[in-house]
Amino acid sequence: MKKGGKEVGSAGVYASPHDMTGKAGVDLSNNGYGAGNRIKAEDTVISVGDFRTKPYPKPKTSGIKIRGTGCATKGTTARGPMA
Prior knowledge:
- There is one protein chain.
- By secondary structure, this protein is mainly β.
- It is built from no helices and six strands.
- The chain has strands at about 1-5, 5, 45-50, 50, 65, 75-80.
- Strands 1-2 form a two-stranded antiparallel sheet. Strands 3-4 form a two-stranded antiparallel sheet.
- Strand 1 and strand 2 form a beta hairpin.
- It is elongated.
- The mean pLDDT is about 75.
């Protein structure tokens, strides 16, 4: 079907369901939104104005002070492996 010079319609018209290797028979019921992948309401952080459902996390204070930063605007502490 064409509309305005472009082909429009369902994808089934062009290709049957397949995976990235081209194999047919893909499980369309697994779309990544299964019951195991859901975020719980108590894990979400909602903020409205000055009110938050959870307090802000404490800033990291571990690490070493690095040298030669000049006019650093994002901090002068290095964390992680320094090898």
